[in-house]
Amino acid sequence: MKIPQALRNTRYFLNGNNFNVLCLFFFLLPWMTQAHPVPPKKEFYSLLVYHLKDKGQEARLDTYCQQALIPFLHKQGFGKIGVFKPVTNDTTLYILIPSTNLEKLLKWPENALKDAAYLQNGKDYVETAWDQPVYSRMETIVLEAFPEMPQLSAPELKGPDTARIYELRSYEGPTERLYQNKVEMFNKGNEVGIFKRLGFNAVFYASVLSGSKMPNLMYMTSFESRAEREAHWKAFGADAEWKKLIGDTYYAHNVSHQDIILCHATPYSEY
Question: What is the pTM of this model?
Answer without folding.
Answer: 0.85
